[in-house]
C-alpha cells in the first residue's frame, strides 16, 4: 500500500508542476512606453509633456541635434528624472526663433527599457540679437546706434523713463511701448499697420535720434524685434541707459564782415560755446534764390537738405572761432555770412544767425589786362604764367591752349565756357543748390596763376589764351601769347649718378669734415657721377619724392625738363666734379616733404639738346647710414688727386 500511495502522490504532483510551468511561459513581456508632446511655446520658453506607461522611472535629456541620440540606458542614467507616469517640463531662458531637441526614455520595475522618443521644439519669434549703444545726447534727445545680428529682422526703438521702467520686466516695457505706438498712430490719423510700416527699422542704424524727451532726465532705451501686423515682440530685448543734457543757453554767434574789397573780405565767426559743433558759410546770395536775409532759418535748412549727407559724417562742421582776413569773394556781389548749430544724428540745434554785405565793384571783365609769360617749352609741355595787372586781379579768367593754325578768339572762349559748364553740370547732380558762380570760382583763376598744359604735339606753334569771364561765366576779353614746342629728340649724352651711401652729418662734423657747414642732425647723401658721350653741360637737381618711374604721369623726362631746368636749385656741375655731397633729412626725422628723395641728373650737348634724365631714388634711413670713415677716406682720396668734390672739406 505504501508504494502505491507514493506513486499516486507523484502522479498528482507532476500535473500540478506541469500546469504551473505552462502558465508562466504564456504570460506576455511588459515593456514601458514613452510619448512626448508640445504644450506651448513663446520666444524664451517651451513647455512639453512626457508621458509613460508601465514605467518605474522616467527621464529626459536635451540634445544639440538628432544625429547622435543616446540609448535609453544612458538617458535614465544621466538625464533629468521625471515623475511617473507623466510630467510637464519647462525649458526657459531660450533664444527666440531657435530649434531645440529633447529625448526621453523609461524603465520598468523588471528592468525593461522603453524605446527612445525624440521631439523637435521651436521657440517663437526671430533669432536676432542687438548691439545697442547710446552715442550722444542733447537736452531733448538721445542718439543711439543699433547693430542687429540678423539684417532682415524688423525692429523698433523707444525710450522710457528710467525712474518708471528701470527695473520693469520685459513684458511691462513691451506693454508701455505698444501703448505709446497706438497713441502715436492715433495722433497721426493712421492705422497701426501704416504707422509700423514707417517706424520699424532693418539693418544697422547709426546715430538715430529719439527726440521729444525731458531735459536732464535718465532714460532706458530699448530695442527689440516687432511684428508689423500687431506690434507683438518677435525677438528678445536689448537695453541701454542714457541721460539727456542739462539745459544750457542757446548757441549764438557773433558774425562780422569788414575790409571788403573787390576780391576779399575780412570775416569772423565766434560761437557762444567754443565746444559746440556748427556750420558757418559765406556764400553769394544768389545761392539761395527766393530767400532773403529774413529767411535765415530757411537758408540753413536748405543747406542741410543739400549737404546733410556730408554733415552727418562730420564734414563741413566747425568748432571754436574763425578769423579769416582774406576770404575770397566776387566783386559787386551780395553775400550772406551765416552760422547755425548742427550735431550729426540730431540736425540743426540752434537758430541761424545771418548778416549781409556787398563787395566793391571792380573793373569789368571786358577791360581785363594781363600778361602771359612763357617760362619753359619742351616737346610735349609748356610752362606759362598769367600775370594780371594789379587793378584787374579781381577778374576771373580761364586758360586754354590751341595750335596757332587752328586758333580763333571764339574757339578760346568756347573752350573755357565748356570747361565751366561741364563742371557746373557735374556738381549740380550732387548739389541742387550749386550755382554758375560756384563753378566759375572753382574752374577759373584769379590773380597770378601757373598754366602748364601737357600732352602737346612736338615741334608745333601754340597759342595760349587767358579768357576773362564774368561772375556768371560769360566770356569777355581774351589775352594771348604764342610759343612753340621743341622737336622730340634726345641727345646722345648722359650724366649718370650713383648713390654711394648716406652718412651722418654729426659724425662728419666730429671727424673734422665740413666744419663751417650746417649739417648737424642731417644726413649726407654722397653720389658719384659718370659722364657718357661728350656733354657740353651737366646738371643735377634733388627732388623730394619718388621720381624713379619715367613712365608715370607728370614724371616723364619731358615733364621734368619743363620745370627743373628753371628751378633755382637746378645746379650746373663743373667738368672736374666727380662726386657730390647733399644734406638731406633722415627718414627718422620725417616731416612734410616725404620719405623719399630722387637725384635727377641730366646733360645736354653742344646744340643745347637734353639727353635722358638719370634718376637715383633713395630712402635716407638712419639705421642704414654709412661708416663715416668711408667718407673721410673718399674725401682724402679726392683732395689728394685731381678730382673735385662739390663741397670741399675746407668749406
3D structure, described in words:
Keywords: Signal. Residues 1-19 form the signal peptide. This is Fibronectin type-III domain-containing protein. This protein folds into five domains: 33-122, Sandwich (Immunoglobulin-like), CATH 2.60.40.10; 130-243, Immunoglobulins (Immunoglobulin-like); 253-358, Immunoglobulin-like; 365-484, Immunoglobulins (Immunoglobulin-like), CATH 2.60.40.10; 494-645, Immunoglobulin-like (Sandwich), CATH 2.60.40.10. The radius of gyration is 44 Å and the shape is extended. The strands form ten sheets. A four-stranded antiparallel β-sheet has the order 4-3-6-7. The termini are far apart. Strand 1 and strand 2 form a beta hairpin. It is α+β, with helices and mostly antiparallel strands. Helices cover 20% and strands 37% of the residues. 30% of the residues are buried.
- Give the uncertain stretches in residue-range form: 1-24, 647-651
Helical content class = 10-25%
How many helices?
Answer: 11
Biggest sheet details: 4 strands, antiparallel
Cα gyration radius (Å) = 44 Å
CATH level-four homologous superfamily name of the largest domain: Immunoglobulins
On the 0-100 scale, what is the average pLDDT? 91
**Biggest sheet: strand arrangement:** 4-3-6-7
Shape: extended
Name the CATH class of the largest domain.
Mainly Beta
Number of domains: 5
Terminus-to-terminus distance: 157 Å
Proper CATH architecture of the largest domain? Sandwich
Keywords: Signal
Organism: Candidatus Merdivivens pullicola
Protein name: Fibronectin type-III domain-containing protein
Signal peptide: 1-19
Amino acid at each position: 500500500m505504501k508504494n502505491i500511495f507514493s506513486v499516486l502522490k507523484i502522479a498528482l504532483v507532476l500535473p500540478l508542476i506541469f500546469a504551473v510551468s505552462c502558465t508562466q511561459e504564456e504570460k506576455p513581456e511588459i515593456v514601458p512606453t514613452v510619448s512626448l508632446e508640445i504644450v506651448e511655446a513663446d520666444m524664451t520658453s517651451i513647455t512639453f509633456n512626457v508621458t509613460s506607461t508601465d514605467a518605474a522611472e522616467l527621464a529626459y535629456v536635451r540634445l544639440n541635434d538628432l544625429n547622435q541620440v543616446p540609448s535609453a540606458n544612458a538617458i535614465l542614467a544621466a538625464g533629468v528624472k521625471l515623475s511617473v507616469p507623466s510630467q510637464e517640463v519647462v525649458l526657459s531662458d531660450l533664444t527666440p526663433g531657435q530649434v531645440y531637441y529633447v529625448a526621453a526614455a523609461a524603465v520598468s520595475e523588471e528592468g525593461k527599457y522603453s524605446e527612445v522618443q525624440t521631439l523637435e521644439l521651436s521657440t517663437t519669434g526671430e533669432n536676432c540679437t542687438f548691439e545697442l549703444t547710446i552715442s550722444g545726447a542733447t537736452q531733448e534727445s538721445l542718439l543711439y546706434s543699433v547693430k542687429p545680428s540678423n539684417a532682415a529682422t524688423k525692429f523698433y526703438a523707444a525710450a522710457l523713463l528710467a525712474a518708471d521702467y528701470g527695473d520693469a520686466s520685459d513684458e511691462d516695457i513691451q506693454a508701455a511701448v505698444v501703448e505709446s505706438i497706438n497713441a502715436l498712430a492715433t495722433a497721426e490719423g493712421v492705422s497701426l499697420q501704416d504707422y509700423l510700416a514707417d517706424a520699424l527699422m532693418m539693418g544697422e542704424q547709426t546715430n538715430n535720434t529719439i527726440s521729444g524727451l525731458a531735459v536732464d532726465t535718465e532714460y532706458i532705451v530699448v530695442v527689440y524685434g516687432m511684428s508689423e501686423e500687431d506690434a507683438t515682440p518677435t525677438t528678445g530685448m536689448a537695453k541701454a541707459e542714457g541721460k539727456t543734457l542739462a539745459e544750457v543757453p542757446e548757441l549764438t554767434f557773433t558774425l562780422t564782415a569788414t575790409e571788403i574789397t573787390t576780391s576779399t573780405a575780412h570775416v569772423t565767426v565766434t560761437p557762444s560755446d567754443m565746444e559746440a559743433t556748427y556750420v558757418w558759410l559765406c556764400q553769394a546770395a544768389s545761392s539761395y534764390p527766393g530767400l532773403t536775409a529774413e529767411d535765415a532759418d530757411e537758408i540753413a535748412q536748405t543747406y542741410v537738405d543739400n549737404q546733410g549727407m556730408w554733415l552727418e559724417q562730420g564734414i563741413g562742421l566747425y568748432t571754436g572761432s574763425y578769423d579769416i582776413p582774406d576770404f575770397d569773394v566776387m566783386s559787386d556781389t551780395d553775400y550772406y555770412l551765416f552760422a547755425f548749430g548742427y550735431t550729426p544724428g540730431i540736425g540743426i540745434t540752434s537758430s541761424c544767425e545771418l548778416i549781409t554785405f556787398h563787395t566793391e565793384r571792380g573793373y569789368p571783365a571786358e577791360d581785363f589786362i594781363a600778361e602771359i609769360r612763357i617760362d619753359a617749352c619742351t616737346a610735349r609741355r609748356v610752362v606759362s604764367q598769367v600775370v594780371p595787372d594789379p587793378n584787374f586781379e579781381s577778374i576771373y579768367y580761364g586758360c586754354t591752349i590751341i595750335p596757332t593754325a587752328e586758333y580763333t578768339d571764339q574757339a578760346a572762349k568756347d573752350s573755357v565756357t565748356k570747361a565751366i559748364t561741364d563742371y557746373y553740370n557735374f556738381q549740380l547732380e550732387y548739389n541742387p543748390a550749386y550755382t554758375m558762380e560756384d563753378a566759375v570760382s572753382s574752374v577759373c583763376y584769379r590773380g597770378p596763376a601757373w598754366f602748364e598744359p601737357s600732352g602737346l604735339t612736338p615741334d608745333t606753334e601754340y597759342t595760349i589764351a587767358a579768357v576773362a569771364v564774368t561772375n556768371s561765366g560769360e566770356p569777355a576779353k581774351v589775352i594771348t601769347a604764342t610759343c612753340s614746342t621743341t622737336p622730340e629728340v634726345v641727345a646722345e649724352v648722359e650724366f649718370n649718378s650713383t648713390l654711394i651711401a648716406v652718412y651722418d652729418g654729426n659724425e662728419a662734423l666730429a671727424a673734422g669734415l665740413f666744419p663751417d657747414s650746417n649739417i648737424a642732425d642731417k644726413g649726407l647723401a654722397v653720389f658719384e657721377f659718370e659722364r657718357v658721350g661728350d656733354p657740353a653741360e651737366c646738371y643735377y637737381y634733388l627732388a623730394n619724392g619718388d621720381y624713379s618711374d619715367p613712365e608715370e604721369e607728370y614724371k616723364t623726362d619731358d615733364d621734368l625738363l619743363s620745370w627743373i631746368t628753371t628751378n633755382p636749385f637746378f645746379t650746373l656741375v663743373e667738368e672736374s666734379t666727380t662726386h657730390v655731397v647733399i644734406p638731406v633729412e633722415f627718414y627718422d626725422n620725417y616731416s612734410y616733404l616725404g620719405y623719399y628723395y630722387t637725384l635727377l641728373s641730366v646733360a645736354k650737348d653742344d646744340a643745347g639738346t637734353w639727353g635722358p634724365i638719370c634718376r637715383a631714388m633713395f630712402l635716407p634711413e638712419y639705421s642704414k647710414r654709412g661708416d663715416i670713415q668711408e667718407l673721410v677716406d673718399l674725401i682724402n682720396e679726392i683732395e689728394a688727386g685731381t678730382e673735385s668734390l662739390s663741397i670741399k672739406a675746407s668749406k
